[in-house]
Write a structure and sequence with these properties.
The chain is mainly alpha-helical and about 90 residues long. The protein contains five helices and two strands. Strands 1-2 form a two-stranded antiparallel ribbon. The termini are far apart. The N terminus is likely disordered.
């Protein structure tokens, strides 16, 4: 397992700022390795890492913000763009 994935979510937010680590985190969430993250994959990963208290609505809202083309999946490109600092 990749060590940074098991850290608290606030640390993960900092990791997302490092563009070299974004593809690694993406691959860890993309459980079926189809090159896309589904809502269920995101929800499962967040729950398994201690963010279960986020609630289904918050996860769905986060997913919708990251799925910029509205196709129901987060692509690598969307992941990299939406996990960039503002």
């Amino acid at each position: 397992m990749i060590p940074f994935i098991v850290r608290p979510l606030d640390v993960l937010a900092e990791v997302l700022l490092d563009k070299t680590l974004r593809p690694i985190l993406f691959a860890a969430i993309d459980q079926d390795h189809n090159g896309q993250i589904s809502l269920e994959e995101l929800r499962a990963k967040l729950q398994s890492r201690g963010a279960g208290g986020m609630g289904a609505e918050k996860v769905a809202e986060l997913f919708k913000q990251m799925d910029t083309d509205g196709d129901g999946f987060i692509s690598m490109e969307e992941w990299c763009v939406t996990s960039s600092p503002l």
